[in-house]
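Exercise 3.2. Students should predict the tertiary structure of the chain below and write it as structure tokens, then compare their answer with the key that follows.

Predict this chain's 3D structure.
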Amino acid sequence: MGTKTTVDTARKIVDNLAIVIKGKPRVLEHVVATLLAGGNILMEDVPGVGKTTLAKALAYSIKGEFRRIQFTPDLLPADNPGSSLPTSGKPAAPSAPPISKSSGRYLQSWSGFSGPEA
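Answer key:
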């Protein structure tokens, strides 16, 4: 894919996401840039601001698959299919293939809530 084609495709995805997510053009650009770079995105925010909606719209825009994991403070890495833990004391370095239906990657959204300090 040439540079012009990649830019045009990215712009179309951002424009498509902007139909659903209003008022956050920089967020949409960052999400699409990260997707094209093969990176990972962790969306953290308070409930109700559109994290899951953005993930669903992105999956739909690229003809991908959307699966949601409800992240909670007590969630363990083993609870997330495809996660890995370091065994040698060194950080794990999992590969980051592009998000697609065939790769089995997840578009994840964080809806964590921390209550009053105990």
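Discussion points: Confidence is low (pLDDT under 50) at residues 93-106, 108-118. The longest helix spans residues 3-20.
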